[in-house]
Amino acid sequence: MMSTHRKKETKQSTTSKRIQYLGLSAITLAVMSYSAALAAEEKNEALDLPDMEVSGAAQEEGKTQLNLQLLAPNDTAEYLRSVPGASVNQNGPLTGIAQYRGFFGERVNVLVGGTHIKPTCANSMDPPLSHIPPSLVDSIELKRGIAPVSSGIETIGGSIVATPFTNEFGLSDEFESSGRVSAGYKSVSQGSQLSVFAGTANDNHRVNASISAEQGDDYEYPRGDVSPTEYERSTYGLGYGYLRDDYELDFSAHYNDTGVTGTPALPMDIIYSEAFTSRVGIKVGLEENRQLDAHFSAQQGEHQMDNFTLRAPPTMGMKRISDAEVDSLGYGVKYTFPMEDGNLVLGVDGDTATHSSIITDPTSAMWFVENFNEAERNRAGVFAEWEGDATDALSVTVGARMTQIDMDSAAVGSSMAMMMPMSAAAQLVKRFNSADRSRSDNNFDVALDASYALSETLSLEAGVAQKTRSPSYQERFLWMPLESTGGLADGNSYVGDLNLDPEVAHQLELGFSWDNKTAYFAPRTFYHRVDDYIQGIPASDSIVIAASMGDPTPLQYANVDAVLYGFDTPFGYQLSSSISLDGQVSYVRGERDDINDNLYRIAPLNGLLAVSYTQNNWSLTGEVEGFAAQNEVSATNSEKETAGYGLVNLKGSYRPKHNIELMAGIENVMDKDYAQHLAGYSRVDVGEISKGDRLPGKGRNLFITAALEW
Predict the structure, then answer these.
(1) Is the peptide bond before 228 cis (omega within 30 degrees of 0)?
(2) Of 310, 256, 360, which is closest to residue 92 (Cα–Cα)?
(3) CA–CA separation, 154 vs 617, rounded Å?
(4) Rg of the chain over all Cα atoms, to the nearest angstrom
(5) What are 503-524's pLDDT values in tens digits?
(6) If I label 350, which of 66, 112, 539, 682 is the partner at 20 to 30 A Cα–Cα?
(7) Phi and psi at residue 106, in whole multiples of 5°?
(8) Residue extents of the structural domains in the chain
(9) 593 C-beta neighbours (distance < 10 Å), count
């Protein structure tokens, strides 16, 4: 049990850390000011910027590389809307959870700056992509289709890599400076952002620092405001690199400080969410084109949320505060060497994570529910992967991975169990604490991707794989019916199951890529059969039902069978030297294979079409987004249907000088009243949106951003 004394110590620790990071920000600003001064002195040697691309998403070596130039979201996850097959589950303005081809949450491997960041919140209020603000994102890559085994552990739902800005090594021993300042404003939420990245480097050393600040009010929609959707976030970063001959060392540290931020699709809102992550990477070039790569990362996070600061307290007067923390370490070593007409990679990797969370009542010092107590989830894997040319026309990536996942939990407790020894809560505490909570899974992944070139413009694509995922710590260790569900946001209470089996997905993908430099078209179809898919089903345990505290139909995580299938395709056409058309269409269907029901929170058929006009220093883009109605919903999760809709967006960019860029646009030009299917339902008792109704999408938004680079 977390005592009152421990909570005070935690808060004092948090205050101390904020003071420390104010000092860090002062140092950061000093470094940036000095770098800016150097840049001013050397303005005749300013960094040449690449030509701006205005196409939707470039395809290269099976990856989808997003163009981020003309988007201005609050949440980095929103960039994924440009990716064929990708979507975002929205529970709040900064809590976008990545979805790819119907898989979301822990099923999608997301790396930020090379680190697998663990959400501190048991409801994923701080998903990985929330740790990097959009203004400091350099690129986002998604391995389209079946992710190779080398891309990470548990890639059943694909792999996404977000890379923050950094600076490159120089060409001489003289230090040269580079950097970027960005500022922006959004009318729909009266939101503003300011970020600075600055660095200096020579041929052996590079140093950089970054700082950003964002804030916004409740966003508007055609019939009013959606509350609470205000937000605030600050980030601080430092980086250092050393290069000598065939040896490279890279260090980075990042501090994310999210303040009071609404999450109306969840039962509580963010009061604060603080996380410090650091990473050290080493690359060593060896003889005969061999290379050794290694990295080590660490994360420490603290988080608090409540149900009364940003929203009216529950009508029954049950005020609640939840405090959570996570500690995580990660590592990886891989050795790459030539083999046949390709390269073989041998690697080991893994990470550890320990989660704790307690719910308290500010009006009653004795009341508490310890929903997670030192819940451990440790992963260790080995893999081998070969990538190369099997013939002149056939390119292949084939690999296998073995992963061991060990999980355990300390004993839990509750004041209800202490005060009422015969209550349902007391029985659940006794059942959980007396059980053997240690679990170990041995998972096996294998993946094969192949591309066969029929001509210079046409290639056939195929992939087949078996991918696995073990239960999350919530799915195994949630001992009492609660909504601590990794951001499912369906309004149901869940209870875990210690005896869950890992999910095993058998994946098949077929398609082709056609690109004649003027037009491109790359459709893919996919089919995933998932054995032991982890899904909430109606609880039949009378003790669980009695302990559900107002939810008469709690769900219990269980292994079921499921299938996901569909298609997605990017396409485009260069109409002239100045005008281009780009777009994508995506469809996924998710079904239970054991009963007649659909999987929860699956994006409907959707498409994006953009027409761009580009000149030397300016461009204009018009977009049309279309979403079909979603009628294939989950009865088990009491999911509601949504209507189809279309949106029109206009965006433009202008460079008065080579290192200055101004961007402006209007999103939802027609001020359409709509609801995204992947948005949650309002959990707020009092407000303009009735409790249980789908949260509406944003209304008309005028935005402007400006960036200066040197």
Answers:
(1) yes
(2) 310
(3) 43
(4) 25
(5) 999 999 999 999 999 999 999 9
(6) 66
(7) -65, -10
(8) 4-709
(9) 14
Q: How far apart are CA 411 and CA 358, in angstroms?
A: 13
Separation of alpha carbons 72 and 684, rounded Å = 28
Which helix (H) or strand (E) segment holds residue 162: the answer is strand 159-164
3-state secondary structure (DSSP) of residue 674: coil
Q: In whole angstroms, how far apart are CA 126 and each of 303, 326, 487, 488, 555?
A: 9, 12, 10, 13, 24
How many Å apart are CA 496 and CA 489, to the nearest integer? 16
Cα within 13 Å of Cα(222), Cβ side: 9
Side chain identity, residue 333: V
Q: What is the pLDDT of residues 578-621, one digit of tens each?
A: 999 999 999 999 999 999 999 999 999 999 999 999 999 999 99
Which two three-digit tokens encode residue 140? 């986002």
Interatomic CA distance for residues 690 and 498, integer angstroms? 36
Q: What are phi and psi of 187, to 5 degrees?
A: -75, -30
Q: Show Cβ contacts of residue 278 under 8 Å, excluding neighbours closer than 6 positions.
A: 251, 252, 253, 254, 297, 298
For residues 641 and 694, the answer to whether their CB atoms sit within 8 Å is no
**Whole-number Å distance between alpha carbons of 221 and 225:** 6
Burial of 534 (0-12, 13-18, 19+ CB in 10 A): buried
Alpha-carbon span 317 to 40, nearest angstrom: 59
Bridge partners (DSSP) of residue 381 are 349, 403
pTM across the whole model:
0.91
Query: What CATH number matches the domain at 4-709, 2.30.30.30, 3.40.50.10860, 2.40.170.20, 3.40.50.300?
Result: 2.40.170.20
The full length of the chain comes to 710
Dist CA 695 CA 353 (whole Å)? 33
Tens-place pLDDT, residues 64-77: 655 555 567 889 99
